[in-house]
């Protein structure tokens, strides 16, 4: 007859067998494959093209963060963090010399700065990848001991891991390819990307990396109702901050679901956000993995507004040239009978009479009329003086929208068309299929540096602006990232 000890040992053996089988099963999951990728990827897996493109993203993101540090929403969140939390002088803050916060709060306010003017980069499927990752990686690098700072190449590796994870997750859903309606994508995949980047920089093992993603999933999500308000930049700030927190918690041993990226019937993980979520394992970086940034460049904005505005602005700018050519050299609303915009159907960027700068940045009508009047849209277009011009308001009253069936709400396939009917009956048309700055027609290095100089020069002296350009360009050759960190202090 079996003794109690034998029965107990037999039960423990069975439990161990079940646990071992469960571990083996979980090793084959989508979630586990992402954890392994994050922990195993090395700098040598980054091609020269990926390094070049990602350095452009870093430079652009720093620039829009610096000019974003002059905005009202940035000032509000910075004051909140300084007044509500105990001071921790660790991580630097964009545009504020001598100001430091805890790493997570620095990631938060710098993320807010980056998106405060909607000037940050955009990818396809639609998300803002750099603004959620770079502030977290910078803050974490500041947190590391001075004798153990990451190399420039390790810094870029972490950054690229954060970008890659976002792109892979977005490709698991066809719905995600379209301009969003329900939730703001950076608040979900951005949090995951920040967690992945920080997990890589912390050199977490594959299990901890998986847990970091799962913890981040519990800290994700923001509704599209807050688009075109001061709260939209919080989506980027929170994604950066909470992804960093998720990685730090995982580094301390906090655990979460081992199936958060998998499609498990009856128990939603990330598929809670996507109705048509079909995940695929991420191949090992040692098996010929190609980074998405290798295949598709990034979209960089020439002016601070929702990406969709760039199509109508370019189309309207071409009509402006025609109007100036046939008229007295200026555009007069008195000569305009009707303005027809043919754009995708997307409710939150259809704003006939925007009442704030944030609404104006999300208004087909405003950006088209600004370009018709001035020939371009710029940073200054969203100042109160520019927004309240009588001639601009007069043009807005003539605008009508059409939503052709062949113009989907998709940044890879949409177009913008502007048709102006003059009082005398003449009809002028302009169309943009791919604006300058789109991933199919990317900004040149010269144009990108010009944008950076314009943005960073608002808060930094010219010599520091030029030094930042040099440091980012040589980042992959730096023994540690201190020169970059010191320029931002």
Can you walk me through this structure?
- There is one protein chain.
- The protein is built from 19 helices and six strands.
- The longest helix is centred in the N-terminal third of the chain and has 24 residues.
- The protein has 489 residues and is mainly alpha-helical.
- Helix 8 packs parallel to helix 10.
- The termini are far apart.
- The strands form two sheets. It has a four-stranded mixed sheet. Strands 1-2 form a two-stranded antiparallel sheet.
Write the layout of secondary structure elements.
Elements: H1 4-27, H2 30-40, H3 48-68, H4 72-84, E1 91-92, E2 100-101, H5 103-115, H6 130-143, H7 152-170, H8 189-201, H9 206-217, H10 232-251, H11 292-295, H12 309-326, E3 336-342, H13 357-360, H14 364-374, H15 384-387, H16 390-396, E4 399-402, E5 416-422, E6 427-432, H17 445-456, H18 462-473, H19 482-487
Parallel strand pairs: 3-4
Antiparallel strand pairs: 1-2, 3-5, 5-6
Helix pairs in contact: 2-9, 3-5, 3-17, 3-18, 4-5, 5-6, 5-10, 6-7, 6-8, 6-10, 7-8, 8-9, 8-10, 9-10, 12-14, 14-16, 17-18
Query: So what's the overall shape?
Result: globular
Number of strands: 6
For the largest beta-sheet, the strand count, sense and barrel status come to: 4 strands, mixed
Order of helices and strands: HHHHEEHHHHHHHHEHHHHEEEHHH
Number of separate helices: 19
Query: Termini distance?
Result: 75 Å
Low-confidence runs: 1-6, 8-25
Give the integer mean of the pLDDT values. Answer: 93
């Amino acid at each position: 007859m079996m003794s109690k000890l034998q029965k107990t040992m037999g039960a423990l053996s069975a439990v161990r067998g079940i646990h071992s089988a469960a571990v083996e099963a979980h090793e084959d999951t989508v979630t586990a494959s992402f954890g392994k990728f994050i922990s195993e990827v090395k700098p040598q897996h980054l091609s020269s093209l990926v390094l070049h493109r990602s350095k452009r993203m870093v430079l652009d993101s720093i620039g829009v963060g610096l000019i974003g540090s002059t905005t009202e929403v940035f000032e509000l969140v910075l004051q909140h963090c300084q007044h509500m939390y105990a001071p921790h002088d660790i991580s630097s803050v964009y545009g504020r010399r001598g100001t430091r916060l805890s790493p997570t709060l620095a990631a938060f306010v710098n993320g807010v700065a980056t998106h405060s003017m909607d000037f940050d980069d955009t990818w396809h499927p639609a998300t803002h990848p750099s603004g959620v990752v770079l502030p977290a990686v910078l803050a974490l690098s500041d947190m590391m001991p001075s004798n153990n700072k990451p190399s420039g190449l390790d810094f870029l590796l972490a950054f690229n891991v954060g970008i890659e994870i976002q792109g892979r997750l977005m490709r698991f859903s066809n719905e995600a390819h379209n301009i969003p309606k329900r939730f703001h994508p950076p608040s979900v995949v951005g949090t995951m990307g920040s967690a992945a980047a920080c997990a890589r920089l912390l050199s977490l093992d594959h299990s901890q990396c998986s847990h970091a993603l799962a913890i981040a999933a519990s800290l994700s999500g923001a509704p599209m109702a807050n688009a075109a308000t001061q709260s939209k930049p919080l989506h980027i700030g929170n994604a950066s901050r909470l992804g960093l927190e998720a990685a730090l918690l995982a580094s301390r041993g906090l655990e979460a679901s081992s199936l958060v990226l998998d499609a498990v019937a009856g128990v939603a993980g990330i598929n809670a956000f996507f109705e048509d979520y079909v995940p695929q394992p991420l191949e090992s970086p040692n098996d010929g993995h190609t980074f998405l940034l290798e295949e598709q460049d990034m979209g960089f904005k020439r002016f601070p507004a929702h990406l969709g505005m760039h199509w109508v602005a370019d189309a309207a700018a071409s009509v402006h040239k025609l109007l100036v050519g046939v008229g007295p050299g200026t555009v007069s609303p008195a000569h305009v009978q009707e303005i027809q915009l043919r754009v995708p159907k997307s409710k939150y960027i259809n704003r006939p009479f925007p009442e704030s700068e944030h609404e104006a940045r999300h208004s087909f009508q405003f950006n088209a009329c600004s370009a018709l009047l001035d020939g371009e849209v710029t940073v200054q277009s969203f100042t109160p003086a520019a927004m309240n011009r009588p001639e601009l308001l007069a043009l807005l009253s003539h605008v009508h929208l059409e939503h052709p069936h062949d113009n989907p709400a998709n940044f890879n396939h949409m177009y913008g068309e502007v048709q102006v009917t003059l009082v005398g009956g003449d009809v002028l048309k302009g169309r943009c299929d791919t604006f300058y700055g789109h991933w199919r027609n990317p900004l040149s290095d010269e144009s990108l540096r010009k944008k950076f100089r314009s943005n960073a020069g608002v808060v930094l002296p010219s010599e520091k602006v030029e030094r930042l350009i040099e440091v980012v360009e040589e980042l992959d050759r730096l023994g540690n990232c201190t020169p970059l960190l010191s320029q931002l202090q």
